[in-house]
């Protein structure tokens, strides 16, 4: 997996955190520096941690399922991407609610874990694709931090307008990468189905 592909995966993974950050931005009239940085730190940390956990779980199983690894990577990317697209088209996804407790520790922790579950699955695919997981996790964490911080500010300024579009685009990118992995294995590496 190239550096550009890692960056695209990182951007795609950060779209859930971006969407939640927009919602958090809607929840307050004034944003202090702590409120701007906290979601990005939570989301960035967990988006970096989960691929590492997934990677090491995948390493344990990679020898056992090497012959179907490309199919598994394809299936995971398509499922995650499809889920993101479905959520982006959901009517409930468009409605925002104000919440004065949005920036409490336990709430941010729960949101960070929930938005990083996809990164766990991606980490498993990294094991099959022999990706430099430290680099991928670092890039994912930094990109998620930056995008979440921007999402919070955008949500505060512009509202819910960008949320579903960002999730939709992120889902499409993951599906395209899944198809690329499968296509490369089946047609360019002499692999057998």
Can you offer a commentary on this structure?
- This protein has helices at residues 3-26, 33-62, 69-89, 105-115, 117-129, 133-158, 163-188.
- It is an all-alpha fold.
- The protein is elongated and about 55 Å long.
Provide a compact summary of the structure.
With 193 residues, the protein is mostly helical.
Lay out the secondary structure.
Blueprint: H1 3-26, H2 33-62, H3 69-89, H4 105-115, H5 117-129, H6 133-158, H7 163-188
As residue ranges, the low-confidence spans are 93-99
Relative helix content: over 70%
Structural class comes to mainly alpha
Task: Give a count of the beta strands, DSSP E runs of length 2 or more.
Answer: 0
| Rg calc | 17 Å
Number of helices: 7
What keywords describe this structure?
7 helices, single chain, 0% strand, mainly alpha, 193 residues, elongated
């Amino acid at each position: 997996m190239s550096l550009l592909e890692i960056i695209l995966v990182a951007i795609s993974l950060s779209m859930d955190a971006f969407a939640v950050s927009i919602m958090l931005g809607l929840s307050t009239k004034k944003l202090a520096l702590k409120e701007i940085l906290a979601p990005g730190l939570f989301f960035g940390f967990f988006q970096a941690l989960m691929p590492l956990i997934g990677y090491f779980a995948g390493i344990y199983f990679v020898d056992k399922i090497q012959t179907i690894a490309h199919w598994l990577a394809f299936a995971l990317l398509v499922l995650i991407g499809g889920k993101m697209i479905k959520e982006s088209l959901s009517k409930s996804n468009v409605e925002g609610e104000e919440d004065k407790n949005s920036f409490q520790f336990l709430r941010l922790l729960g949101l960070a874990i929930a938005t990083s579950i996809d990164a766990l699955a991606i980490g498993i695919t990294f094991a099959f694709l022999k990706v430099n997981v430290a680099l991928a996790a670092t890039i994912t964490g930094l990109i998620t931090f930056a995008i979440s911080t921007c999402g919070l500010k955008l949500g505060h300024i512009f509202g819910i307008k960008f949320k579903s579009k960002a999730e939709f685009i992120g889902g499409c990118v993951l599906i395209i990468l899944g198809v690329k992995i499968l296509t490369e294995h089946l047609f360019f590496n002499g692999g057998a189905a």
